[in-house]
Amino acid sequence: MNGSTITEFILLGFSCSRTAQLFIFALVSACYTTILLGNVLIMLTVWSEPQLFQCPMYFFLASLSLIDMSLGSVAAPKLVTDLLNNGGTISYVGCIAQIFGLHLFAGAEMFLLTLMAYDRYVAICHPLRYTTIMNQQCCFRLLMLCWIGAFIHSTFHMVVLAQLPFCGPNMLNNFFCDIPQVIKLACSDIYVAEILILFNDSLVTLPCFLSLLVSYVTILATFCGRFGKSSRKTLSTCSSHLTVVGLFYMPIVFVYIKPSSHSQLEKMASVFYMVVTPALNPLIYSLRNQEMKGAIGKLKRKCKLFLLPSGDQMCEISFSYQRHCCAYEC
After folding, report:
1. Cβ–Cβ < 8 Å for 101, 311
2. Interatomic CA distance for residues 182 and 195, integer angstroms
3. How far apart are CA 241 and CA 156, in angstroms?
4. How far apart are CA 278 and CA 32, in angstroms?
5. What total number of domains does the chain contain?
6. Using alpha carbons only, what angle is made at residue 75 by residues 74 and 78, rounded to the nearest 5 degrees?
7. Is residue 312 scored above 80 in pLDDT?
8. Which residues on neighbouring strands pair with residue 9, listed in sequence order?
9. Could you tell me if 156 and 163 are in contact, meaning their C-beta atoms sit under 8 angstroms apart?
10. Is 127 or 101 the better-scoring residue by pLDDT?
11. Residue 256: CB partners within 8 Å, gap ≥ 6?
């Protein structure tokens, strides 16, 4: 309908030696496995413990795990396949869907990280009003706003792309479809489209970044002169969140803010924020949080009881039955 004649795009991937490609394949495979296992473990742990699920911090953490798992699944499975095949293609519809999914989940994560910073701000700076402000109903509404905002952000990109005709070159010097490179293949003037996309991205990124900055500057100011045991615990939680924020924002700034060079380093930065960061988040939150460690231990014990071998179960049932019979005879 928009005059496009291209039905697929060629993904050039990584132009490096076969040994380096196999190394990237092993790295991405390991990270994607960690994404699935680690984030599923965190979600099950939070959902299985009512006390954690009702706590806003852990409720948002489980939501972050769901987003990380979705974001990692946007490009990682195809990247693994293309690395094995030493190159690949993607259909026009698949390319558009990949861009939509990338901006949907990345936008949702950006909004959610900002919401988690606001949660820590209320908990530290207004502790007496925390349970009133961040009640369960409010948390659900704020989470829904994150998804609605991300959906609007991603849909806006799709509307802009739908107006552009693609009828010329179809080679993308990357391992996935991304707007800055796809839009340059359009066979029409893209000046207005670039301005609209830049405006849309800035409308999401700048307010989120400034909100994060204000929240943590206020938190650090509140911490001055107050370094008790509880303060150290809270500071540890905040440092975990700041680490996640840094791992998420730094590669995005490197890829999208600076002039595009299509270098291998830029592609590795894309791999980092799409695959490596979602794999590190569960480790950062679970290894530095005693409550998560305790809840994971409880979940393991529940699983061991549930997955008890049938022979052991029969012996236990038989022993209980014999004991019951002896008591009855007595």
Report:
1. no
2. 15
3. 29
4. 9
5. 1
6. 120
7. no
8. 90
9. no
10. 101
11. 180, 201
222 Cβ contact partners less than 8 Å away, ≥ 6 residues apart: 124, 125
The burial class, CB within 10 Å (0-12 / 13-18 / 19+), for 87 is middle
Asked if residue 67 has pLDDT above 90, the reply is yes
pLDDT digits (tens, 9 = 90+) for 221-259: 877 655 555 556 666 667 777 888 888 888 877 777 665
pLDDT at 230: 54
Question: Which is more confidently placed, 107 or 18?
Answer: 107
Residue keyed to tokens 């369960």: 136
**Whole-number Å distance between alpha carbons of 27 and 80:** 10
Please list the residues that pair with 88 across neighbouring strands.
11
269-308 pLDDT, tens digit each:
888 888 888 888 888 877 666 677 777 777 777 776 656 5
Question: Which residues is 89 bridged to in the sheet?
Answer: 10
- Does 269 reside within a domain? yes
Residue 253 amino acid letter: V
| Separation of alpha carbons 56 and 140, rounded Å | 9
Q: Which residue range(s) make up the domain with 58? A: 8-288
Q: Is residue 315 domain-resident?
A: no
The whole-angstrom separation of Cα 102 and Cα 73 is 9
Does residue 327 lie within any of the structural domains?
no
CATH code (residue 105): 1.20.1070.10
Domain annotation covers residue 324: no
Q: What is the pLDDT of residue 325?
A: 39
Q: Which residue has the higher pLDDT, 199 or 232?
A: 199
Q: How many CB atoms within 10 Å of residue 47? A: 14
* Residue 280 token pair: 């590190």
Can you give the pTM of this predicted structure? 0.84
